[in-house]
Write a structure and sequence with these properties.
Aspartate Aminotransferase, domain 1, four-stranded mixed beta sheet, single chain, 2 domains, Aspartate Aminotransferase, domain 2, alpha/beta, 17 strands
Amino acid sequence: MSGSALYETFTRAPLAFDHGEGTWLVTDKGERYLDFAGGIAVNSLGHGHPHLVAALSEQATKLWHVSNLYEIPGQSRLGERLVDATFADKVFFTNSGAEALECAIKTARRYHFAKGHPERFRIITFEGAFHGRTLATIAAGGQYKYLEGFGPKVEGFDQVGFDDIDAAEKAITPETAAILIEPVQGEGGIRPVSAQSLKRLRQLCEQHGLLLIYDEVQCGIGRTGKLFAHEWSGVTPDIMAIAKGIGGGFPMGACLATDEAAIGMTAGVHGTTFGGNPLAMAVGNAVLDVVLEDGFLEDVQRKALLIKQGLASVADEFPEVIEEIRGTGLMLGLKCAMPNTKVNLALRDHHLLAVPAGDNVIRLLPPLTVTDAEIHDALDRIRAGAKGLVEAIASAAAK
């Protein structure tokens, strides 16, 4: 055997982390990095949060796995709490965002089957979307780079331009079952969908008997300063997929639905072995304990304003590096004026971790628990990285 024993599907940074402390990651060599990547919006409460550690440790001494052949009290409790806090009546727990999306797609198709319209299975999606890496979710996302080489695209997804609601309306046929959208695109480049657009989609769904599905895998669980991003618009879905932040670093996701939308999801039609296991449920409940505390989300909104104002100042100072600041809450994007990979490397050189995205954007996804001092520290590092890039350009031009 030559090289790594791992599939070579990741281009990894040459960093190995030993442990984390809140917003900080520490390498095996003792170097400290300010973590504004958050495991790609997963570490919602940072690293080593005491309440999450206690919940997981306590559950680990009791029971890890029994399967869904039996009652799981933590699952019932987390389901009830998500229902109480959202539009939903029913919850199905999964291990990942992609599985939550698969469940959402199946729920929408099964709804129409139960209503006597099995021909209604197609789902309208939007350019730039990212819904996961399964065969169905790469088809839903529609991006060629994820579809290439995996055989025929899974049938049933019709893609239109980003935020092009007129095109979405024209794409509706007698076979259309649902419309699927991220209220804020993450992988696509931190692109929020306007409240007006979401309202129009809701109206189209009502008019044509379709289900509205939200993918809040990345933008949910407080990331935008509300528990879920769609709350800013006041437009609720029929089905919603969540993951990432709800587990705070432990792999879990969920599909939420109204009673009506879930009408076809009866005994035996869907399942999971690991989904909703006691370990995941303990952590998910612990995350909600913190995020639903009085004042927590308001503080996220306050911190978001602080960092956005600081980023605007950096963009004004270094337009050769940063064109635009995007996003909402602590889900922010730097639209770069040079290759985002170059900017990301410059930030990493200053020990700040961020995440590249589509549309030449760098994502900033700090934990919701980030402090004001850490925000100012991150802004200093971004400014230093941008300054270094500008100086390098000037030096190259002078030669």
